[in-house]
Amino acid sequence: MPELPEVETIVRDLAGSVPGRGIQEVEVFHADLIEGETPAEFARALQGRRVGAVTRRAKNIVFDLGRGDRLLVNLGMTGRLLVPGRGDPAPTHLGVRMRLTRGRELLYADTRRFGRLWRVDEAGWRDFDGRLGVEPLSDRFTVEHLYEMTRKSRVAVKTWLMDQARVVGVGNIYASEALFRARVDPRRPASEVAREEVERIREAVREVLQEAIDFRGTTFLDYRDASGNRGEFYDRLRVYDRDGQPCTRCNRPLLRVVQANRSTFFCEECQR
Q: Which Pfam families match (predicted)?
C-alpha cells in the first residue's frame, strides 16, 4: 500500500499540472471505486468544477473543488493516479477518467480495486479529518505528544505507530525502517518505551519519511508517480524485505516476524 512518501510524491506532481483546470467530463469504468454515490451522480457532481489546491491528508490525496467541497482519493493497495503526456497510452485497469481543460486528463487505474474516490462537503471533511491522527512531518508531531500517547497503550510499538488514528501515513515499510534507525525493538509495548527512545523514534520517522520523499517513494510492484515512473527508495531500505540478509550495523541476519497480520523486519541484536 502506498504510504506517506508515495502519496506526497504524487501530490507534488499533481500540484504542478492540475490546479486551475476545469473538469469537463468524468467516465467511471468500475462502480465499486466510487464511495457514497452512484457513478452517474459522482460524474455529474464533478463536471464543470474547477480544481484548486491538491494536498495530502494521511495517505489520501485531496482535491479542493471550492465552496468547501473536496474530492478525496485513497489508492488502496494498487491504485495509481496519473496525468499522462499527450499521446501516452491509457494504463491497464483504468477505473476513472477525468478530462480536464487545456487538453489534459487525470486517470485513476487500480489492478485490485481496493482504492476509493469520494466527495465530501465541509462538514464531511471536518468529520474525516477529525478521525485522523497527527501528521508526522508537522510541528504537532512532538516528543511530548508522542510520549503522552504511548503511555496509554500496551500494543506493540510498531503496531501503535501504524495506527492512523494516532500517527498518519506511516505504514509497514517506514515503521520497520524508523524503528531500526531508532534502535527500538518493534515488539515492545508502546507504554514501555522510554522518553529518550520516543525522541529517537520521532526523529527516525521524520528522517526516513523525508528521505523517501526525496527519492520519490518505494516501488515494489505497483507504485508509480503521476508520470508513471518508479520510486527510487527501495535500494536504500535497511531492513524491510531483507530478512536473512546481514544487518548493516552488526552483520547478524535480519529477522521477520508477523505483527497484526503484517510482516515486521528488524535486527534482534541492534534493536532492544
A: Fapy_DNA_glyco, H2TH, zf-FPG_IleRS
